[in-house]
Amino acid sequence: MPNRQKDDLFQLIKSLGKGEKRNLKLYVQRNSGNTELKVLQLFDALDHLDEYDEGLLLRKQTTITKQQLSNLKASLYRHILTSLRLLKDDDNVEQALNEQMDYARILYHKGLYLQSLKLLERLKLMARHYHQLTHLLQVLFFEKKIETLYITRSMDARADQLADESGEVLARLNTVNALSNLSLQLYSWYIKNGHARNAADEQAIATYFKNHLPSCLQTQPPQGFYERLYFFQSHCWLAFINQDYLNYYRYAQRWVSLFDDEPHMKLVENIQYIKGMHNLLGAHYDLKNAKQFFNTLATFETFWQSTAVQQNDNYRIQAFVYLYTSKIHRHFLEGTFTEGLNLLPELEGLLKMNALYIDEHRVLVFYYKIACLYFGSGRNGNAIDYLNRIINHKSDLRTDLQCYARLLHLIAHYELGNYDLLSYLIKSVYRFMAKLQNLSLVEEAMFAFLRAAFSLNTSQIKPRLEGLLERLKQLESTTSETRAFAYLDVISWLESKIAGVAVEQVIRNKYLLGKRRPSAQPAP
Question: Residue of 10, 151, 311, 418 with fewest CB within 10 Å of its CB?
Fold first, then answer.
């Protein structure tokens, strides 16, 4: 059966642009004998396949036997990587640093030690400018090697200078390593669990953060670029997990401001800038800062269309994921769910086109947001289709998303009047959420209403809805209950049921009313 996802060579070939394919063919033809040109036949055959199917490949390429295929694939893989490495990218700082380091080694092996040291000195300046600590450490070790083995007449204060420089860089690397570990662990916790479920989660995360924050940063702020980057990231994840959206905004803004202060760092860490913009947009969305959200979204969309992003597959795909997430959020903010459905053909086309490169977590999030668009526009059957994709997905990613997908699934079936199915689903979903310790007071109240709804006549429904609405409004400002409202605007749904209007209209009216009021500016 075709397996596009699991063949590394096929994925690599499908990621190549026209120029990269042309360069590969020129490289192979220039550097290989006639017997080696079989790899080009294999390349052309794989390039023309829509899905990886080894049986079909061998039937089409009769000159390649099954016994030869494995070695040819390995050879082609190496050729592609080598040809890509030889392509010059003037904006790739790390590639330029590696190239200069190679030149310094060539001079060293030629015995031209002073020339090598001169080149290393220039290399150090470039590495410091772009905050490339690992490259800087390599340069310092190489300098010490030359100074130790050969008399270069530059020893006077060099020993102390190189020792001090190495010690400074190693100390900074230790701090960067600790902060990047902390950021990664917090982000990993969120990917698995979502927002903190209760006070115990919040306490556990706070304790972990305190114990793993480098001691040197307990009393003073970080100074270097990467120290600040991972410091701000760590605080972002901590605040986001705890739904402390004001601090989430503050640290996301500082994250982006790093690149505003040092724009040349986008050449090295463009993906970190993209992720920072995504989190800044998320913070504005969570705080309902509509004006700031729209301005930041416009900036990000312009950036996404830039050459620097569009010519790099990694940047383009990551920016696409975050851009379309925010485009959907815009319709959530404005209450224009039906209009937002116009995004879906293009979005689904891009998801299919980039399926090889988008992780399943992002896909599940998109499914939930698409389901919310359909639910908000009153198309509950379509919402259920997308929610089923999440519910039927076998994964331990985002247990919170699994829970709220099931809860929205229940509400959509309630809207459709599928009461026979609901009686079974309520028990199943309740057990699922209870097992994961995901039941808050909000969910308990929702389940109590849905259980009772079957036995209520028309005249009894509205008072019960009003009672549920009053209860949930009391919980809305409770810190431990905010998680439920972040995933599902159940307040607006209840208001729509009581008023007898579409939920989309309720949210739209709230947005228009908010526009007429002076908007609160987030604190810096």
Answer: 151
